[in-house]
Amino acid sequence: MTTATKDLYTLMSERKSVRKYDPTFKMTQAELEEILALATSAPSSSNLQSWRFIVFQDEATKKELRAIANDQEQVETASAVIAVIGDSDMYKNVEKIAAQNVAEGHMDENQKNTMINNAMNLYPYAPAELRRNIASFDAGLISMQIMLIAKEKGYDTVPMAGFDMAKFAERFELPEHHHPIALIAIGKAVAPAYGTSRMPVKDIARFI
């Protein structure tokens, strides 16, 4: 980051949901990988990082995806579409994650074993719906980070939940424990987003 980097509040204010993109502008895979890598600093339940991604750049595949996504134009015209997937079997990666925590100096062996034991005593026995809800919650956290990081880098985004999730899972051969949650179009805007209002805090929060 440089001193020219915009502050967080400015980015939050300037990030808008853009639906008109320059179809000739193409982001590189390296740029998209960097955005995803930075976004993984997001918190997740028990640090199990239940998010997965499919990144669509191929023009023919984006055209096919557009049909699954209720014919939303931005799916085809944006530089890429990031599908955010939730993994409800996230606990199966706990040993790998815990070992990496030790290797990077974040915990010792005792803490690693505690993390593994806690996860394996809880998540395998939790109802499938609960694990799916946890994965959806984690996906929401990282999705916002993706959009803010993209804006800081000069790109525009729009999140979409309006797509046929069953058709998506079938077409892109998702395993049973992977659940499509959102699509994020990303690229360069050719028209500004609509301005939107927000309800005042007094109407949405109760302090007790």
From TrEMBL:
GO molecular function: oxidoreductase activity
InterPro entries: Nitroreductase, Nitroreductase-like
Pfam families for the chain: Nitroreductase (PF00881)
Superkingdom of origin: Bacteria
CDD domains for this protein: MhqN-like
UniProt-listed SUPFAM superfamilies: FMN-dependent nitroreductase-like
PANTHER family the record matches: NAD(P)H NITROREDUCTASE YDGI-RELATED (PTHR43673), NAD(P)H NITROREDUCTASE YODC-RELATED (PTHR43673:SF3)
Designated name of the protein: Nitroreductase family protein
Organism, scientific name: Bhargavaea beijingensis
